[in-house]
What does this fold into?
Amino acid sequence: MPETSVNPHLALLPIVLPLAAAAVGLLLLRHRPRAMALLALAAMAGGVWASWSLVSAVNAEGAPVVLHVGGWRAPFGINLVADHLGAMMALMCQSVLLAGVLYARGCRDTCVRFPVFYPLLLTLAAGLTGAMLTGDLFNFFVFAELVVISGTVLTACSDHRGGVEAAYKYFYIALVAAMALLLANGCLYAEYGTLNMADLAARIADRPDAPLAGVALGLLLVSLGIKCAAVPFHFWQPDFHTTSPTAVSAMLSSVVVKLGVYGLIRVSMLLFPHADSVSPLLVGAGVAGVAVGGLGAVGTHDLKRMLAYSTLAQIGFMLVAVGWKSGPAIAAALVFAINHALVKAAMLMLAGAVASRAPVKSASFEVVAGVGRALPGAGVLFLLGGMALAGLPPMNGFVSKLGVFRAGVDQAAWLALGALAVGSLCTFVYVARSFQRVWWESPEAAVHAKPYGDSLAAPLLLITASLALGVAPQPLLSFASDTAAWLADPAVYIDASLKGTP
It folds into this structure.
């Protein structure tokens, strides 16, 4: 296969830049939040550039950028593999987290001035990116735990009085996911003697019926299902996202849950591509997520909680597409993941901006009803984001859902398509209701919006990107199709990962 001439150390930059900035910030800028915010912005901008360079290299040369850390070649050493999927997901995480840092810099929460706030956002970025780029299953566990620790502490320092309780809930359910993932690592190592994903995939293909293989697969599905809040492991998600600082909840509900989706793609397409039980489980969990998320969003009375339930439904669409496993379905799942990350982060930021203008900072519909009248610009952005969630043109959400429905027609999966269609109708209902409550309903006479609030710069940037990907989606669609074709042949990944970049 073709080899890339790109310096393999480029795969390390998206991880090292935020980690180094977090360390420097804690040592030198912990009592200067404005300087810390600027450093975090610079580090994330550098990470976006490095991730974009990886995507460009993979796209141009058709081969991954592979770094054998310390010069030890896989499978004996640890390697980073920036293939089509890893590079795309890393760019998504870095881009949305850049917007998250920008939003935090312009928001009025007390917690953003804590010395640890920006360093934790940076370690969150490093953990997510490392998990997407690592070629080793144990290091996937390590990076995922860095995400959990960062997210837990960021939630606990929330201005919301329920932040500590939500952080405990998340920590303990994440502990279950961590134990399942660690036990899966143990089972696979005991059975196959390796945890390098490429080497492991080759050995599983040689002995797919090994006694501990099925146990490991079940543990992996449980762990990754918890991480992406798939039904029935979803119960922690609404409380966690509702009480987190807005800058944090926007990241948790848009990119952190994609860690589980990414892992499920690797499991179903690389490690266990011949496991017949995985596809129906993913499709069933996805359909259940669409139902639970849609009905939960329709029935809730809090704007941020509504968007948190909406994430369950959107993740459901992705799981259904991953479960179908065809080339068009995997490509549709990837496009959906990218587009959802942009839109959901923007929508939660807009909810936070509205709540920051309310007399009492809260996203409850009883509190924010009519507050949006003082924010017509935010209303336009929310309307565009709502159109994207509902799958209406010209937004990127239309492209996402069209791809999933086309893949479903190819599969003749009519029952699942019917459930997804009803879920899309629910999305339209709760988005329209929330827009009407916040921007059209007349506020009570005693309610006056504050003249100040969180900045709209970050959601404006994300909604603009969403609109651009809806109007001109072809580059993303082409790269997603190339990624799906790459994933369809595990032997190509195995050869590239073990051989490495010269």
